[in-house]
Specification:
By secondary structure, the chain is mainly alpha-helical. The chain contains 5 helices and 2 strands. This is Transcriptional regulator, MerR family.
Length: 114
């Protein structure tokens, strides 16, 4: 399917699809006319990429995780390294949340002295 069809079927802009391809998240063949052509499984791949982006993962992490996301469902085949990668990402998020809580507390303290 061409990029316009993939965009229509997934609700993702052609610009985003080209970005995913540039980041190594999505593969397209080039026809003799130079147009991108995607396989049918690209629809499921794009949906999984979007879900992983909504979870806050970077495209670099998604590139590592995506091979473990097989099939039409949103679930994952638990590759050996997948659990460790996602656990690491969760730990990083927890650290960021705690840092934000400390910053918020400090700001509340400053405002209280006003």
């Amino acid at each position: 399917m061409l990029i316009g069809e993939l965009s229509r079927r997934t609700g993702v802009s052609a610009r985003s699809l080209r970005y995913y391809e540039a980041q190594g998240l999505l593969e397209a063949r080039r026809g003799t006319n130079g147009y991108r052509a995607y396989d049918e499984d690209a629809v499921a791949s794009v949906r999984k990429i979007r879900a992983l982006l909504r979870a806050g993962l970077s495209t670099e992490v998604i590139r590592q995780v995506l091979p473990c996301a097989r099939g039409e469902q949103a679930g994952f085949d638990w590759c050996a390294e997948l659990r460790a990668i996602l656990d690491g990402e969760l730990a990083d998020l927890d650290e960021q949340i705690e840092a934000l809580r400390r910053s918020r507390g400090a700001l509340v303290g400053l405002l209280a002295t006003r």
